[in-house]
């Protein structure tokens, strides 16, 4: 016998649907008008809700924008990347590097980054929230994976968070800045792979643990 759906569950589903509706409308408005040009009234119209309903779910434009940025990262796989402990280290670095650059060097990801960079000086809380929940979160997860590889004797690293950030920066070389400042098109998968391969080789040359000498 199928258990009846509770009123609380129905209410929760309705809330989730309404929240998604608002976020979809807000995303369209931010993409069209940018952060400064977007208004809560315009967002409410695009989402098909009243302003009163909008404020039930989000206190202000800042919190709404930050949630969209976080969802963009989650949707595109950056924060959900799986660092499998027993996978070959070289394969993991390459897979992560390619996924990371594909995320930040595409129009949707870049739009969020440019908007955060443009408003962070005036509204540092947005910059901090984006950095902590997106960038620092990823560095921390990657750093914990590297620490596990150190414990397993695969790598020799004193500061795993620093090493994680170094690898991510090396993967960006010649790709991210030209793209984010709109001097080049999104890099091709082949070009991304070439830069990530180089970053992987540099990283392992610096941090791979030497193999023990075999006995004669």
UniProtKB/TrEMBL annotation:
DNA-binding region per Swiss-Prot/TrEMBL record: 39-58
InterPro entries per the UniProt record, alphabetical: DNA-bd_HTH_TetR-type_CS (IPR023772), Homeodomain-like_sf (IPR009057), HTH-type_TetR-like_transc_reg (IPR050109), HTH_TetR (IPR001647), Tet_transcr_reg_TetR-rel_C_sf (IPR036271), TetR_C_Proteobacteria (IPR039536)
Pfam families assigned: TetR_C_7, TetR_N
Any one GO molecular-function label of the UniProt entry: transcription cis-regulatory region binding
Domain HTH tetR-type, residue spans: 16-76
Sorted UniProt keywords: DNA-binding, Transcription, Transcription regulation
PANTHER family: HTH-TYPE TRANSCRIPTIONAL DUAL REGULATOR CECR, HTH-TYPE TRANSCRIPTIONAL REGULATOR RUTR
Protein name as catalogued: TetR/AcrR family transcriptional regulator
